[in-house]
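Hey team,

Filing this mostly as a record. A colleague (T.K.) asked me to run one chain through the structure pipeline before their review meeting, and I want the input and output archived in the tracker in case anyone asks later how it was produced. No errors, nothing strange. Just documentation.

Input sequence:
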Amino acid sequence: MRPEPGQVLHFSEDPTITRFVPHVAATARRSGAYVWAVDSDRCPDYWFPRQCPRAMAWTVPGTTDADRERIVGPGCGRRVHVIEYGWLEAFLSVRLYGYRLPAEKFVPVGEPVPNAVVATEPVEPLGPPEPVGDLLRLHREAGIQLRLLDNLWEFWEAVTVSSLGWSGIRLRNARPRTDGRA
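Output structure:
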């Protein structure tokens, strides 16, 4: 599921939202109240149950062949999403909905590359929420490798020092590190 021109998307497990009101997220790194959404490029980051920890990596213009082969894998495309085995059942069974929102109400946020868009005023969806459907199928159709690991942290450590683009969401919900670090 991707937005159409002039739209951004908000993903939720709640199909009853009729108005998005700016709020301060419990995990906010930015001060201020916002309505959060994503553009087409960042939609795949949210094709997961909300609380599911995930680490993601993708090739960017400066990605080295060595990093692509080491982290994404030879013959495995340009993008990989990693979740823990303990989240597989939730991933396969979640009922996720996409809300289409008017893009003109939002501005990009994130450094050095925007990773989301935010609005500072209430926003009403452009229509009813749409079921996102089979998340595994979405990943496959988008050419995104989905990898299952016992623990995300070794992958995360490798990605964050690589030449790949990367993002981690809800990592606080991941299993504890196995290397003893906090």
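Quick notes for T.K.: The mean pLDDT is 93. Residues 7-173 form one domain.
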